[in-house]
Amino acid sequence: MPILNEEHHLAAAVGSVLAQDYPGPVEVAIAIGPGTDRTHEVAEALAAADDRVLVVENPTGRTPDGLNAAIAASTHDIVVRMDGHGALSEGYIRRAAEILQETGAANVGGLMLAEGLGDLQQAVAVAMRSPLGIGAAKFHTGGAAGPAETVYLGVFRREWLDRVGGYDPSFSRAQDWELNHRIREAGGLVWFDPSLTVTYRPRSTWRDLARQFYTTGQWRRQVMRRHPETASARYLAPPAAVLVLAAGIVGGFLWRPLWTLPSGYAVAVVVGGLWIARAERPGVMTRMPAVLATMHLTWGAGFLRGTNARG
User: Fold this and answer.
1) How far is the C-alpha of 85 from the C-alpha of 9, rounded, in Å?
2) Which contacts of 213-216 are long-range, i.e. CB under 8 A and separated by 24 or more positions?
3) What is the pLDDT of residue 310?
4) Which distant-in-sequence residues (6+ apart) come within 8 Å of 105 by Cβ?
5) Between 138 and 184, where is the model more confident?
6) Among residues 29, 27, 71, which one has the least CA distance to residue 159?
7) Mean pLDDT across the chain
8) Is the distance from CB of 78 to CB of 105 less than 8 angstroms?
9) CA-based torsion, 74, 37, 45, 20: positive or negative
10) How far apart, in Å, are the Cα atoms of 121 and each of 25, 111, 141, 179, 297?
11) CA 99 to chain centre
């Protein structure tokens, strides 16, 4: 578990691991970065209360560094990737280990079960579970069990992590996708199974949502820079939308019919947003169009901006 400023969620996340019914030994390696809240104190208290919990220092605070540090500190042949704001479903580890044996996969994973508390957080959760919001990846929207490009978090055979060199520290984001790509390139199988679910709490403010998707877009471009063969319509759609909308808005001052581009997009997110949130409470429905637009356009803008990372 790579952790940074998770004071309010860490105990529940660790508790969801320790409560698993896995028949073998379990250890929880928490790699903690230099945060600004009481996360370190919470982690130390958890370790003092249960000797299965190990606290590992992550001086950089970066996710890939924390993951690699926690993996290095752990000892077992199966490695379960976990975050500090998630919760494993009942039987998750036991079932994942069974699927590893049944399929021979290098990594197995399931659904990122996004669930919100307030209206905005729930609107983001609904958008993340819909192809209209974040694309059609199985770990967001579900589907039949089978091979996949990537899965949420993941349960790995340690031998495969060792074989491909673990997480690439040059990727501050998108490190899971990039690792799974290298596993598949090396001949390993990445397997999705919808029976495996991990509860995920989305961002709860507009600012945090925009920052998350902007940086995700930036790092997705970095993945494509490193691995050009991964380019796809799904990942090129948001930056293309930003360019088309910008051209429509600016060009409309010269030729008014171009304004149909941004107005058409606005109609699409309003109608689509109200449709996917039709079963939700009114506060969620009214926020959905703006949530969709924020996710699409900040992701696309981040992709166009890219990062300064090289390698």
Assistant:
1) 5
2) 213/294, 213/295, 213/298, 213/299, 213/302, 214/298, 214/299, 214/301, 214/302, 214/305, 215/172, 215/173, 215/302, 216/173, 216/174, 216/299, 216/302
3) 46
4) 99, 157, 188, 189, 190, 191
5) 184
6) 71
7) 92
8) no
9) negative
10) 36, 18, 17, 29, 18
11) 21
Candidates 153, 162, 164; CA nearest to 193 is: 153
Q: How far apart are CA 251 and CA 253, in angstroms?
A: 5
Predicted TM-score of the model (pTM): 0.85
Which tokens hold the place of 300?
Answer: 């696309």
pLDDT tens digit string along 39-73? 999 999 999 999 999 999 999 999 999 999 999 99
Among 82, 80, 86, which Cα is nearest to 100's? 80
- Cβ count within 10 A of residue 178: 23
CA distance 257 to 183: 48
SS (H, E, C) the chain: CEECCCCCCHHHHHHHHHCCCCCCCCCEEEEECCCCCCHHHHHHHHHHHCCCEEEEECCCCCHHHHHHHHHHHCCCCEEECCCCCEEECCCHHHHHHHHHHHHCCCEEEEEEEECCCCHHHHHHHHHHCCHHHHCCCHHHHCCCCEECCCCEEEEEEHHHHHHHCCCCCCCCCCHHHHHHHHHHHCCCCEEEEEEEEEEECCCCCHHHHHHHHHHHHHHHHHHHHHCHHHCCHHHHHHHHHHHHHHHHHHHCCCCHHHHHHHHHHHHHHHHHHHHHCCCCCHHHHHHHHHHHHHHHHHHHHHHHHCCCCCC
Per-residue pLDDT of 21-45, as tens digits, reads 999 999 999 999 998 999 999 999 9
Contacts of 48 (CB under 8 A, 6+ apart): none
Rounded distance, CA 245 to CA 45, Å? Answer: 51
Q: Which residue has the higher pLDDT, 210 or 137?
A: 210
